[in-house]
Amino acid sequence: MKKYIFYTGKTLLGMRMARHYIPNSAHKEEMLREIGFSSIEDLFADVPKGMVKEFNLPEGKSEFEVFLELNEVLSKNKTVLEMPSFLGAGTYFHYVPAHVKYLIERSEFLTAYTPYQPEISQGILQALFEYQSLIAELVGLPVVNASMYDWGTAMAEAALMTVRLFRGKRKKFVVPKYTHPERMAVLRTYGAGPGIEIETVGWNEKGQLNLEELKEKVEGAAGVYIEMPNFFGILEEEIRAIGEITHDAGAFFVVGVDPTVLGIVEAPGELGADIVVGEAAYFGNPMNFGGPRAGIFAVRNDPKLIRQMPGRIIGMTKDAEGKRAFVMTLQTREQHIRRAKATSNICSNEALVAVAAAIHIASLGPRGIRELGEVILKNTAYLKKRLSEVGEIPFEAVNFKDVLVRFEKPYPEIHEALLERNIHGGYYVKPHFPELGEAALFAATETTRKEWVDALIEALKEVS
């Protein structure tokens, strides 16, 4: 039996099984000579000493041994029924109907990658067209792409887009100080190269955008961004006024939205938004440890906005025989045009996540989406009421999903005590906003049970 450098497995009938998993590994010395090196050490000579370490990997195991070991590790996990979770802050436990997973596991969806030959990818193109149509109806803007990586990258791409629309004459992008910290980190990363100036605006006594401060800082801005609901879980009451202030300054108004709220509030497009971004994965997708996601990106029906959109747009037309056909109407990304002309370097979009979201939205329909929002709002209100018994609610406004509560005792100690009682607490916000003190965000969705909230409050009374 031929021997290779890399082996896996143990012995079978006394014979070592050879597995050649890495291509051309037997030609290592020849490849090194070809590129002018005598050894692997010479190849990595520029790497500082101490940075390259031996992995000291254990001996290989049989497939059944690995199966047993992994199941032992997995048995340590606890389901939501065993440990109710109130950890929100951008990732939420929503119920996903069984048929959504069944449908996206069909091979034409599950194995469909970027449709480089759209004429032979009619199924996935139609599904993405339906996704665009559903999101357009939800957000109140007619042109939607399919899609971005997640909410954070969609927001950052919107910032880049507003600057491009001013041809670099305006480089300031105004955001609330209390924008989701992870999205802020993405924005700073995306904006570092083009030199985008990020200006922040604080909050008022209700935990909403301070309009007077916005009026001072909006001058010369390319865009203004807000979120609905904001990071504190609060629904902004003055979105239309914020849009008017933005437009009076000649800037573009960008709204980030959790689409599960759109059954009970006005669509951002109807409130004056020029660009809407958000997270489509709240429909049809489990939490997945925070990913993958699918970022929403929608704009007004304005050619100058449409031409600057990142990603791709799927359109419907007719073929040479007059039959309905779906095509890539716009794909201004670096893989398809000259890199200098590309609006974005986004390559693989989140097509499967978007299709799952479309299936879920279509299944709910207008009535179902409204009822979903109503149930979440009701559960959030109950959670907020009960939390006020054990901590301080710093902002009195309408909350959706997340509720900010402040404690006297250090929250990490409270959190550990909750875990010991099989309850997963909220998201600690002091590292991001130290001025709020020992505060945490607790979240509720349509899946939150009354008995879970009651158990949480009883536990908090014991430990806080």
Automatic annotation (TrEMBL):
GO molecular function terms listed in the Swiss-Prot or TrEMBL record:
glycine dehydrogenase (decarboxylating) activity
Recorded catalytic reaction(s): these are: N(6)-[(R)-lipoyl]-L-lysyl-[glycine-cleavage complex H protein] + glycine + H(+) = N(6)-[(R)-S(8)-aminomethyldihydrolipoyl]-L-lysyl-[glycine-cleavage complex H protein] + CO2
What's its top-level EC category?
oxidoreductase
Matching InterPro entries = GcvPA, GDC-P_N, GDC_P, PyrdxlP-dep_Trfase, PyrdxlP-dep_Trfase_major, PyrdxlP-dep_Trfase_small
Similarity comment: Belongs to the GcvP family. N-terminal subunit subfamily.
What keywords sit in the KW lines? Oxidoreductase
Q: Which NCBIfam families match?
A: PRK00451.1
Asked if the record carries the keyword Oxidoreductase, the reply is yes
Q: Where is the Glycine cleavage system P-protein N-terminal domain?
A: 19-460
Function according to Swiss-Prot or TrEMBL: The glycine cleavage system catalyzes the degradation of glycine. The P protein binds the alpha-amino group of glycine through its pyridoxal phosphate cofactor; CO(2) is released and the remaining methylamine moiety is then transferred to the lipoamide cofactor of the H protein.
**HAMAP family per the record?**
GcvPA
- Quaternary structure and interacting proteins, as annotated: The glycine cleavage system is composed of four proteins: P, T, L and H. In this organism, the P 'protein' is a heterodimer of two subunits.
Q: Does the keyword 4Fe-4S apply?
A: no
Q: Which GO terms fall under biological process for this protein?
A: glycine decarboxylation via glycine cleavage system; nucleoside metabolic process
CDD domains registered for this protein in UniProt: GDC-P
Q: Known EC number(s)?
A: 1.4.4.2
What is the name listed in the Swiss-Prot or TrEMBL entry for this protein?
Answer: Probable glycine dehydrogenase (decarboxylating) subunit 1
Stored PANTHER family? GLYCINE CLEAVAGE SYSTEM P-PROTEIN, GLYCINE DEHYDROGENASE (DECARBOXYLATING)
